[in-house]
Design goal:
Blueprint: E1 2-6, H1 16-22, H2 28-33, H3 55-72, H4 76-86, E2 90-97, H5 106-125, E3 129-136, H6 142-145, E4 148-151, E5 156-159, H7 183-197, H8 202-211, H9 218-229, E6 236-239, H10 243-258, H11 260-276, E7 289-295, E8 302-307, E9 313-315, E10 318-320, H12 322-331, E11 336-338, H13 343-350, E12 353-358, H14 360-376, E13 383-385, E14 388-392, H15 394-403, H16 407-413, H17 416-427, H18 430-457, H19 459-490, H20 492-505, H21 512-515, H22 519-536, E15 544-548
Parallel strand pairs: 2-3, 2-12, 3-6, 12-13, 14-15
Antiparallel strand pairs: 1-15, 4-5, 7-8, 7-11, 8-9, 9-10
């Protein structure tokens, strides 16, 4: 396997804030962003400043993790890491929504980065650091997680169980095969399709084992799959939706209730600060919105908690006093959950988090969450960018080599049609290229000289000459494109190859890591791939890795 490194600024669809955060070549930006991010994203300075937790808290945490270990099938290495947490180890944490069939490739990239950073921190600091994967099972965006995407022959094949719920429910507990809706037949059908596209590789059998099991839920199947994939590396998988974990994190939830007004003011001020600096706030914070959700005791629906001017709280149709809300927190802490801005703080009260590994959106969240961290914990957890990578399978690499196409050129093309024209231009006979290039260069030279001369006669003539020259150059470019298109049409395989390259490297115009499920790449050699990703996550390349498998 070989890897190349691209600057993060070359990637499509990244926010200005993340580009400045991760672009080490822009020397002034990390210093400017230090007011929002306390640590250099590519330094290991955080490894020597891990937070401390009481022995009692650590034992309660370890017991809660052990109670989930059998359910997720955690490996002996993961169980050993739980014991290390009880004995004083720090955690390098990451997490992801519980997407169907394991979610997009970026899920694997996050876990690999957390594992690698924990290894490095242990070596540098002399203190044990263990990797933890936090399942975002309390989210209620069902449409976002009830989908998977794999490569078909000419298109991206999409999967969905078409799950339905009456209200906004936490997605983790949703059963994959509800008997009343023909769920067993639907999951079996989707697994059959996936198995065929994965060429009946062992990972397809693993998907069936976890996702077709009786009573399987989105969080349960996802957690088992991630634990299985990273079993040899001791990744601790945790679902913090339970009573035990919420009880450990209750101090953060209480603070969010009792200090809702001041936290709101701080977040609105931070949003304004980000916008004034030319960035955008990841989460819109409005007056009366809180950082919390409440589960309805009867229906299980997850409602955002909102504050009234009179001090009352509202969740759906239910109105509560602050005293009543605090009573619920005391008796049933698992009914109250944090939103995206409070969740990392909630997480870091439960876990001894040394650093959090996040994607571009999560990094942007931290710029806002920092004010909540400071108000609640008096510190801000360092956030590290996850490994960003595009994986090139051998068959696609062969086609790219044949046409001398690089990943950078694929990014520049942005569409199969444009890439096909590039391939057609390259396929043109040398003599034809020389003639077109010679004519174009000669014309450009003469037009430049003529425009300059006309400008000396009068400004108006100069402008007219410039307009005419622009039209002539356009026609010359059009001639080049026509010649390239002729070569493309003459050799039909060029269009076919361009389509295959674009499908695999920039599916639907997006980075592969954000679209295609990670299991797609585990179908070849899962052990080798995982080790490759962990090694690549050392991040000697601070940008985007292009990895040839």
């Amino acid at each position: 396997m070989t890897t190349d490194c691209l600057p993060i600024t070359s990637l499509p669809g990244t926010s200005a804030l993340f580009r400045d955060f991760a672009d080490v070549e822009t020397a002034s930006e990390p210093k400017r962003l230090r007011r929002w991010y306390p640590s250099d994203p590519f330094s290991m300075e955080w490894a020597t400043r891990s937070p401390q937790l009481s022995a009692e808290h650590r034992e309660r945490l370890a017991e809660a993790l052990r109670s989930q270990a059998d359910g997720f099938g955690l490996s002996e290495a993961a169980r050993a890491n739980i014991d290390k947490l009880a004995q004083g180890a720090a955690a390098v944490v990451t997490g992801q929504q519980v997407g169907l069939f394991g979610g997009p490739l970026l899920t694997l990239l996050k876990a690999a980065t957390a594992i690698r950073k924990a290894q490095e921190a242990t070596r540098i600091s002399g203190r044990e650091h263990v990797p933890v994967f936090w399942l975002a099972s309390e989210d209620h965006d069902l449409e976002e997680v009830d989908k998977a995407e794999l490569f078909g022959k000419t298109t991206v094949e999409k999967f969905s169980l078409e799950l339905k719920v009456a209200h906004a429910w936490p997605v983790g507990g949703i059963v994959l095969a509800p008997s009343a809706e023909g769920g067993a037949e639907k999951i079996a059908s989707e697994l059959d399709r996936a198995q065929e596209l994965l060429a009946y590789a062992p990972i397809a059998d693993t998907l069936r084992e976890f996702y077709a099991a009786p009573g399987a839920t989105l969080a349960g199947a996802f957690g088992k799959l991630i634990a299985h994939i990273f079993a040899a590396h001791g990744l601790i998988v945790m679902d913090a939706a339970s009573h035990e974990f919420h009880a450990l994190g209750a101090p953060v939830l209480r603070t969010a209730i009792e200090n809702a007004s001041s936290l709101e003011e701080s977040l609105i001020a931070r949003s304004a600060e980000l916008e004034a600096a030319g960035y955008h706030a990841q989460v819109l914070v409005q007056k009366g919105h809180s950082l919390l959700f409440l589960l309805d005791a009867e229906t299980g629906a997850r409602w955002p908690l909102r504050r009234g001017d009179d001090g009352s709280w509202r969740a759906g149709q239910q109105t509560l006093t602050q005293t009543e809300l605090l009573a619920i927190l005391e008796a049933e802490p698992d009914r109250i959950s944090p939103n995206a801005l409070l969740r990392p703080v909630f997480q870091d009260v439960i876990l001894p988090t040394a650093a959090y590994v996040g994607g571009p959106a999560e990094v942007a969240y931290f710029a806002q969450s920092a004010v909540v961290y400071e108000a609640v914990l008096g510190r801000v957890t360092p956030v590290l960018p996850r490994l960003s990578a595009t994986l090139i399978e051998p068959a696609i690499a062969t086609v790219m080599d044949r046409h001398e196409v690089s990943f950078e050129q694929v990014l520049e093309a942005r569409s199969a049609e444009q890439l096909a024209l590039r391939l057609g231009a390259r396929a043109m006979p040398i003599e034809g290229k020389r003639k077109i290039a010679g004519a174009g260069n000669a014309m450009d030279t003469e037009l430049t000289a003529l425009t300059e001369y006309m400008s000396t006669l009068s400004a108006e003539l100069g402008r007219a000459a410039a307009v005419s020259a622009s039209k002539m150059r356009y026609q010359m470019d059009r001639l080049r494109r026509m010649a390239a298109r002729f070569e493309t049409e003459k050799e039909a395989s060029l269009a076919k190859h361009a389509t295959a390259i674009m499908l695999h490297l920039l599916p639907e115009g997006h980075l592969q890591e954000r679209v295609i499920n990670g299991v797609q790449f585990l179908a070849q050699d899962s052990e080798t791939l995982i080790q490759t990703l962990i090694e690549a996550a050392e991040q000697t390349c601070p940008g985007h890795r292009v990895i040839r498998l």
